[in-house]
Amino acid sequence: MSDVTIYHNPRCSTSRAVLALIRETGTEPTIVKYLEDPPSREELAALIRDSGLAPRQALRRREKLYKELGLDDPGLTEEAALDAMVANPVLIERPFVRAASGSRLARPAETVRELL
């Protein structure tokens, strides 16, 4: 098992770029296709927290569902943001990467180098 895990969406160009950057180091990461195998609420909360973010910062704002669910409401709580991502994993910004050195939301893709 690798000490690097990427929460990956193969249709996302940034996610593919991050995966390529990880592999360039000679590391084969554990790949979690989070749309098919979403993290638990506790796992997602820890990943976001360990990345130095609040749940609202981890919401994927470009998804149509973001506006449909009213997640752009300034009064939205962090708990409600987390609940929305658990119920709708497509709303999780991507890609998150966890390594022995920490966790990051690798946007832009080069951010992953901080972990490797």
Task: Report low-confidence residues grouped into runs of 5 or more.
Answer: none
Our Rg estimate from Cα atoms comes to 14 Å
Arrangement of strands in the largest sheet: 2-1-3-4
- Shape type: globular
The number of E-state strands comes to 4
Structural class: alpha+beta
Q: What fold name goes in the CATH topology slot?
A: Glutaredoxin
Round the mean pLDDT to the nearest integer and report it.
Answer: 96
CATH architectural type: 3-Layer(aba) Sandwich
* Beta-strand fraction estimate: 5-15%
C-alpha termini separation: 16 Å
CATH superfamily: Glutaredoxin
Notes on the protein architecture:
This protein has 116 residues and is of the alpha+beta class. The protein has one domain (5-114): 3-Layer(aba) Sandwich (Glutaredoxin), CATH 3.40.30. 32% of the residues lie in helices and 14% in strands. The chain has helices at 13-24, 41-50, 64-68, 78-87; strands spanning 5-8, 30-33, 96-99, 102-105. A 4-stranded mixed sheet has the order 2-1-3-4, sandwiched between helices. Strand 3 (96-99) and strand 4 (102-105) form a beta hairpin.
